[in-house]
Amino acid sequence: MTENPRQQQNTDEGQGFQMFMMMENLIDKLKLLDYEEEFIKVLKMRPLNRHYFALQSNPGEQFFMFAALSAWLIRKCGISLKQPEEDDDPNSTIASILDGLRNLGIPVDFSPNKLKKGSGFYALQCLNSLVEKAFTVKNITFKRPVPPVEQFDSSQTVEEDEELELDIDRIEEEMALGVSDVDEDNELDVDDLYLASAFMETTRAEEIIETDVTAEAWNLELEKVVPMLKVSIKSNNSDWRSHLDLMKHHQSEIHQISGTVSLELKKFSDEIEETMRKVSKREKLLNSQFEQLLSQYRTLQEELSFVNDKYREVNVGVVERQKTLNQISESLESVKQEMEERGATMSDGSPLVHIKKAIKDIKKEICEMDISIAVAEHSIVETKLREKSLQTHLVRTSGLN
């Protein structure tokens, strides 16, 4: 049965979020094992960031960091393992780490190739398992946090009675009017209202019932309970009443300082206008004094631009003639080289010597051939004479018979 693509996408996103959580927990646990002193400084490595093994950035560097950290954690658990090097075989390094995991009783239910990239879910799973095992070996346990108990100091300064009465009057007015549009941030706690009402009942009872308690005792008791009776109302920036009061306050301050500021601004304006008039006069004076020099400068500038234009035109012709001269020089050099080669061949006597030697060899061979021909002719004449004498002898013999 095929899985829905949307479900697969949700699964991948959930696993990605889980990797970030695992990496956060791993960093916190490694700090408890003092890895910054025992691992980072000893091996001279950079500290891990919060997303180092959760995201793949540099597989080679991440794999070496994973292998080194795994070896350190395995040694923390009491198993001897050699510190890996950067040029070690990845397969043998992974095999050593997996053997260490199996010796510690940690199950390995994935392929070793999952650890070659040095990041991802399986790498984080191995490191977290090793950290948990190191906690067990080092007897590191975690307890529930105990919140501190707040204690009121009796030596705190007592708020003025007028402020307390104003706060209580404000609470009574809001309760009487039944304000319903107060934001949740400005609402008083029920316990605070209960304490305030109890205090009011106590004050009313004091007005009617006479008691034998002295004023010093009442003041001492008042100092003890005033911190608990203090009413604090959180201000809300979105309340239009506070905005209106703030605007009125700013408006009154602006009215107070507007007179002084206006006088100062007018004074500055007059000073600036006077300075501008002086600058204008000085500018006109300078222009009148240097007008002749300025006209000469403009004339010279125009002449300079004319000369520059003429120079550019002449320079273009010079560049073209320079190119032509270079081409002619190259042709001349090639002709000179060819003439030198031909002159060298003409002045060289070695070919004539070779010819003379060849003629001498030919004459020698001709003499040898003449001798060979004479010997051959002699042999032929001798053979013919022998044959002729033989024929004559045969004729004579046949005539006698």
Give a brief rundown of this model.
The protein has 401 residues and is mainly alpha-helical. The chain has helices at 5-32, 35-43, 59-76, 90-103, 121-138, 161-177, 190-208, 215-229, 240-289, 291-347, 350-400. It has eleven helices and no strands.
Q: First CA to last CA: what distance?
A: 135 Å
Sheet/helix structural class? mainly alpha
* Cα-atom radius of gyration: 59 Å
Largest sheet data: none
Mean pLDDT: 77
**Sequence stretches where pLDDT stays below 50 over 5 or more residues:** 5-10, 152-160, 178-191, 204-208
Q: What does the overall shape look like?
A: flat
Q: Tell me the fraction of residues in β-strands, as a range.
A: under 5%
Order of helices and strands: HHHHHHHHHHH
Which descriptors apply to this entry?
401 residues; 0% strand; mainly alpha
Question: In words, what does this structure look like?
Answer:
It is a single chain. By secondary structure, the chain is mainly alpha-helical. It is 74% helix and 0% strand. Helix 1 (5-32) runs parallel beside helix 5, helix 3 runs parallel beside helix 4 and helix 3 runs parallel beside helix 5. The radius of gyration is 59 Å and the shape is flat. The N and C termini lie far apart (135 Å). Residues 5-10, 152-160, 178-191 and 204-208 have low confidence and may be disordered.
